Amino acid sequence: MIQLKKYLLLFLVSLSVGANAQNTYKNWPDIIRKNDASWFGTEEAKKIAENVLLYQRDIGGWPKNIQMQNELTPSQKNDLIENKKSTKEITTDNGATTQEMLFMSKMYAQVKDERYKESFLKGLNYLFEAQYANGGWPQFYPLKKGYYTHITYNDDSMVRILNVMKEIGEETDFYSIKPSKEITDKAKTSFNKGIDCIVKTQYKQNGVLTAWCAQHDEVTLLPAKARAYELPSLSGKESAKIVLLLMSIKNPSPEIITAVKSADAWFEKTKITNLEEKRVLNDAGKIIDKKMIPAQNAAPIWARFMELDTNEPFFCDRDGVKKKTLDEIGAERKNGYAWYTDEPKEVLKKYASWAVKNGVKVSEAASDKKKTNFLTVAQDGSGDFTTIQEAIYASPSFPYEKFTIFIKNGIYKEKVRVPEWNTNLVFLGESKENTIIRFDDNFSKINLGRNSTFYTSTVLIEADDFAASNLTIKNASGDKGQAIALSVVGNRVKIVNCIISGNQDTLYLSGKNARQYFKDCFIEGTTDFIFGGATALFENCTIHSIKSSYVTAASTPQGLEYGFVFKNCKLTAEPAANAVYLGRPWRFYAKTVFINCELGKHIKPEGWENWSKPEAEKNAFYAEYNNSGEGFQPAERVSWSRQLTKKEAEKYTIENILKDSSKWYLN
Questions:
Q1: 97, 229, 297, 335: least buried by Cβ within 10 Å?
Q2: What is the sign, positive or negative, of the torsion defined by CA atoms of 102, 106, 107, 113?
Q3: 618: Cβ–Cβ under 8 A, 6 or more apart, which residues?
Q4: Residues known to be catalytic
């Protein structure tokens, strides 16, 4: 019997390449995105870096779509050397130049080869030279005849460049290479010019600001045509990253605020919720057909191309003739191009928080959903409530979407509890230094018996899918024994850019099979100040010891693959703290791992302590990989701890540690 080919109906348009790409590292961009920082110091990486240097032209840029990792023959190397002075096909399209600069930055972080630094700076200078006086960038520079001269937002080309300028201008740690003040000032100027260009190119439809086209004429700034099937139009895809960039700007100008407000309203107006894209694959996994299927209450999607005057979606084949439906164009373009996108959903998700943070009232044109999914807490009475707990009481139980409580600056002296029915709740502070939740319970003060510790928390999170950012959570009782600042029981909890402050037992992480994520946080305490049995990932955090004692006390249940994982963190201490252990096992099967962390001199050479539990030495898993600093002394560590191999360390990805089909940790 002939078996019919299976029709694989895949996902509601999760149409971003990043969401669907697998980390196989077979492609050049995948290699650049490797999570293992130490890999960029290997001989394999150095060999690839030689290729990247060869492909870079004297002008500073690179050609596109080159698999830099492929081995070159002597003849090919000679050809590249002879071609150094050529300026043909140098571009920022498809990530070219900006991605090679990132690779060189990651190389220089591991190997201080001055050629890597010089290469990065040449690339940066190329971006400076390529910028138009009006702030935009062409697709190719030196200019290539045709549509390539247009200001190019297509495939997020200009946004990528502006993100480079933003990181350099703000002197962040994103790039390992630190240019001179003259160059950072030049980057600031370049970024500001680029943002000005973005504001000026936002399209007005009957006098109302909307979105952007994939290309804009470099002189008139109006929407422009590219390839035959890329006609002047409003872009659902490219506009999304533009708006997210504008929303990332601190202290935005009135013009930027207007641009974001207008784009948000346009995304709300043009979203499609009655169609789903279904993809038909052959046995080899190749797309052989796409179908748009009617659906009720589908996840929102947007057309890649919309009419400039009506917002109506349209589709084109290589003949350049507009069609109203996807079915009307040939298979080659239909299946080989992204005609719909879900990228603007990130703008809609973040807009309400951004609006309140920037003193903007949520637009009257916004959906009722936005108006009802947001509360403000302010001690001066300017918000909906004056206490955080009141706002929690007013929040819906088990909402379908995120519900945000915006907390204005102030010191909120209250015990806060988020019960298990207040799922999908977000605490958004006005600033992490000045939005402070504090209370002063401790073991002795509570006096409820041997388990008094667990009643001491300033903030208790019992609900799943909770998130918090830009605030301080503090137990202010001082050094009076066990006193929790933040207790997390919920699953899929994400804490970003927060200060968590206390002494003993500052941060308690628990919950059955719970996974929790801390990013860009400052966490301080004395004894066992990060403790519990949850699986928790700490990324780019500062872990600060107030006195000589223990950082962690994990109680990982037997059978869990991960416990506490610290990646790219910095361990610091008060001057008096000069003998600190990385951890000790609260329970026998404790798991704690430090990867790519900087360990201060306060960390004891032996690293770990068994808490007078010889049994724990057999079952606990304490390990490190590629750490640095005076406190990293692998040869002196206790014999029952481990230094991971490269292969073992590679499994410690965010996807593996926090695995969940919703990928909540990315939102």
A1: 297
A2: positive
A3: 640
A4: 528
